[in-house]
């Protein structure tokens, strides 16, 4: 094992549709796995912790198993290290751009590779567009149509690439990165 590294866990589909995950309990579960400096950020399923574990797959499996045992349903977990999230934010086509009034910039974090994807990829209605992707993160513009938010592109990403996906607005991802650096 190497030195402890800060990880960011993005939990998929929590606190929506009856899938309640209390952040205090989430912190307890993660700390119970021996992960250090466990913290959470807002109630949409973002957690920070330190670990010397170098096998990401094994770490994700341990976390997902413990979460399923504790909460009673599967919670796909997508991990990034702080340097990985920094690189994904820096690679974003949204850096230095302001969204139009009817747009929202989003980053969709995935559990596996998005290699081979043909971008841009657009919905038939034009309510979302995947501008491009880094290795494991898609960069999405959501558009409001007739004043309503568009459909969620995550199911399309999951089906196309055979991965789990969870999104965060770009400005939220920037805040998550900043919060991950606080002790």
TrEMBL record:
It comes from the Bacteria. Gene3D superfamilies: SP0830-like domains. PANTHER family: BLL4334 PROTEIN (PTHR36439), DUF1697 DOMAIN-CONTAINING PROTEIN (PTHR36439:SF1). It holds the Pfam family DUF1697. InterPro entries: DUF1697. This is DUF1697 domain-containing protein.
């Amino acid at each position: 094992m190497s030195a402890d590294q800060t990880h960011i866990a993005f939990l998929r589909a929590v606190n929506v549709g009856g899938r309640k995950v209390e952040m205090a309990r989430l912190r307890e579960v993660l700390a119970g796995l021996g992960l250090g400096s466990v913290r959470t950020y807002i109630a949409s399923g973002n957690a920070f912790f330190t670990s010397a574990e170098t096998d990401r797959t094994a770490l994700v499996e341990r976390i997902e198993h413990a979460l399923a045992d504790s909460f009673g349903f599967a919670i796909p977990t997508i991990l990034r290290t702080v340097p990985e999230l920094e690189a994904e934010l820096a690679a974003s086509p949204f850096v230095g751009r302001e969204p139009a009034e009817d747009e929202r910039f989003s980053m969709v974090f995935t559990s596996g590779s998005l290699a081979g994807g043909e971008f841009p990829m657009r919905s038939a209605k034009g309510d979302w567009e995947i501008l491009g992707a880094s290795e494991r993160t898609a960069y999405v513009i959501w558009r409001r149509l007739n004043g309503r938010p568009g459909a969620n592109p995550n199911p399309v990403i999951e089906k196309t690439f055979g991965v789990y996906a969870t999104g965060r607005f770009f400005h939220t991802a920037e805040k998550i990165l900043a919060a991950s650096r606080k002790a």
